[in-house]
Amino acid sequence: MTATPAQALLLASMLFALGLLGVLVRRNLLFMLMSIEIMLNAAALAFVAAGMRWHAADGQVMFMMILALAAAEAAVGLAILLRLHAAGRPTLDADTGNRLKG
Amino acid sequence: MLALLPPLIVLCPLAAATILLLSAGRMPPPAARVLAAGAVGLAAALTLWLAVLFLSAPPPTYRLDVVLWHWMRVGGFDARIAFTLDPLSLVMMLVVTGVGFLIHLYACGYMRGDPDVARFFACMTLFVAAMLVLVLSSDLLCLYIGWEGVGLCSYLLIGFWYAEAANGAAARKAFIVTRIGDAALLCGLLLLATRIGGLDIATLLQPGHLGGGPVAEAAAALLLGGALAKSAQVPFQVWLPDAMAGPTPVSALIHAATMVTAGVYLIARLHPLFLAAPTVMAATAVLGLVTLLLAAGSALAQTDIKRILAFSTISQLGYMFLALGTGAWGAAIFHLVTHAIFKALLFMAAGAVILRVHHQQDIFRMGGLGRAMPGVFAAFAAGAAALAGLPLVTAGFYSKEAILQQAWHAAPLLWAGALLGAFLTALYISRCLLIVFLGPVRTAPTGRTEASMAIPLAGLSVLALTGGLIEMPNAIAPVHLLFRLLAPVLGPPTAEDAEGGAGLLLAGALAPLAGIAVAWGLWRPRAGAIAPADDGLARGARAGWGFDAIYGLLLVRPFLALGWLNRRDLFDRVPDLLAAATRWGARLLGRMQDGRVRRYAGWIAAGTVAALCLAVRP
């Protein structure tokens, strides 16, 4: 049995909502980054579903691009986390980062 | 060539004014003097050339239209910046540039030593340009530009010495009082524009275009309101005596020779409109007569030499309005020309006196100046004789005679009033002359009157004595140069103009002589102190018959009270409310910017969801 585009879209939106919820409620920067990964993948899934619906390869092309984007985003995000750690920040709590100059 | 000259003549003083204004006071005074007097002198020379060209080969209908550009064209309403050259505007141009040049020359000497001479000459040349636009424009809207321009320059120059509060107050008073008339004039223009669909003077005056009836009456009455305020006639005369706060050349140029005669010019230019409104004509004549008698009475009691001349100007303008009201357009313009000459002369002679006696203006502190300054004395005497209308030898006699004749034919009562005015005129100017120049010396004069001031005095003296010879009653000599020149604009001289009963002439000649004789009896030089009369009548006359007090009580005080009531500025509260609401909203929204990334993300998510809901709404 193959999934219909509607089902795939439903799954994508659920994943997106979960990811968004994670970004909003988690205070740990690492987990926020992971939630963003989930949201990106939900969007990629929506592209694939749409490509299936219109029988076009564009959706899968976009999926490959989002994969690369997600990798880059993870690399940059983790690099920022390491820099923060190296600068002597004792915590990963995002709410403490609301001031300029550390 | 003919079409090129009028714009060029306007451009000369305008360019000088622009340069002087842009120099922002950095131009050295000698350069400013040369530039201003040179520009106006060039305009005068070009006007003279224009007059020669125009008179030697006049255009077929004695009018030449020069359209410079179309200002606006809206739904059939077409306003043009255009000049019309015809005999009337030519005569006015000759007066404005000719007398204007002599006054600029005089001002070069008079304003020597004033640090702000560039600003002074900037306003003066701007005034000349605006006045030329006023007399040349062929469209009432264009005329209105000049009308407001001269009013602005008048304001700037009355308040020229702004460091003294009284001068600023006088300037504001002049501006506000004339502004009332300007508003009436503007309403009249709007009425004409809506009824006729344009403000071109030639179309406006085509016979039968406006017809008679209440509209013509209303339009004429509104235009008359503007003319009355500009020409300082009852009930608007209160601003002119105070306007003497300005430098004397300003009084001579603006408040005697040119700007105050703009009202006379306006009515003469639009005379078919006034002919269609007999009630307004009658009102013009009566107001003119009332003005000339009241102002002559006031002049008789003044002690300040410039205020005497100011009231005299009001009174002489009253003569012109009387002439306009009786339909004697030519006589009004004739008196305008001679008055511009002799009143400018009187003001400049008075200015020369004032400079020599250390800015003393009270005639009762002068005296015996004739021996110390015989030249100025001669000039003042020539001007005074022309003002009084000394028979046969002065310009004022002929122009006043023309008005008196016409008044007799309109209504003998008007004639009698005007004759009384002529008597009073001779009386007050003889009083001034006798007290200032004869008798014992009270303030010793110093210095010399320099050449740049003496030359205009001499030139205008000659004109004041002989200028009337261009137009004489038939009983003396059938010379009608001016009326014949103006005939294409103002209509051919009527039989009454030329008729001139010898009896009327004799009465008109005897009145000023009687005035001079009475003045000699009252104020002839004698030993002992001399003091102004101080009874109730004299005090009333000196105060201008209490018009200022009445206006103060009826208009100024209630207005000030209203201003006091509204001192918190009720209407300012509305924008204030708006500002407060904005400030509160900003404070509320500002709380959201607390730097917590998760909240931002939440708001972004909420906004996206809301936008999506809106977008996919069935």
UniProtKB/TrEMBL annotation, chain A:
The keyword Translocase applies. InterPro entries: NADH_UbQ_OxRdtase_chain4L/K, NUOK/Mnh_C1-like. GO terms for cellular component: NADH dehydrogenase complex; plasma membrane. The keyword NAD applies. The chain crosses the membrane at residues 6-26, 38-56, 62-82. It comes from the Bacteria. It is found in: Cell membrane; Membrane. One of its GO terms (molecular function) is quinone binding. It is a multi-pass membrane protein. Pfam families: Oxidored_q2. GO terms for biological process: ATP synthesis coupled electron transport. Signal peptide: none annotated. It catalyses: a quinone + NADH + 5 H(+)(in) = a quinol + NAD(+) + 4 H(+)(out). Its EC number is 7.1.1.-. It is an enzyme of class 7 (translocase). Keywords: Cell membrane, Membrane, NAD, Oxidoreductase, Quinone, Translocase, Transmembrane, Transmembrane helix, Transport, Ubiquinone. NDH-1 shuttles electrons from NADH, via FMN and iron-sulfur (Fe-S) centers, to quinones in the respiratory chain. The immediate electron acceptor for the enzyme in this species is believed to be ubiquinone. Couples the redox reaction to proton translocation (for every two electrons transferred, four hydrogen ions are translocated across the cytoplasmic membrane), and thus conserves the redox energy in a proton gradient. NDH-1 is composed of 14 different subunits. Subunits NuoA, H, J, K, L, M, N constitute the membrane sector of the complex. Belongs to the complex I subunit 4L family. This is NADH-quinone oxidoreductase subunit K. It comes from Gluconacetobacter azotocaptans.
TrEMBL record, chain B:
Residues 137-425 form the NADH:quinone oxidoreductase/Mrp antiporter transmembrane domain. One of its GO terms (cellular component) is membrane. GO terms for biological process: ATP synthesis coupled electron transport; electron transport coupled proton transport. Pfam families: Proton_antipo_M (PF00361), Proton_antipo_N (PF00662). It comes from the Bacteria. Residues 71-121 form the NADH-Ubiquinone oxidoreductase (complex I) chain 5 N-terminal domain. It is found in: Endomembrane system; Membrane. Keywords: Membrane, Transmembrane, Transmembrane helix. Coiled coil: none annotated. It is a multi-pass membrane protein. InterPro entries: NADHpl_OxRdtase_5_subgr (IPR018393), ND/Mrp_TM (IPR001750), NU5C-like (IPR003945), Proton_antipo_N (IPR001516). GO terms for molecular function: NADH dehydrogenase (ubiquinone) activity; NADH dehydrogenase activity. The keyword Transmembrane applies. The chain crosses the membrane at residues 33-54, 89-108, 120-138, 144-163, 183-205, 211-229, 250-268, 274-296, 308-330, 336-355, 376-398, 413-439, 451-470, 502-523, 543-565, 600-617. PANTHER family: NADH-UBIQUINONE OXIDOREDUCTASE CHAIN 5. This is NADH-quinone oxidoreductase subunit L.
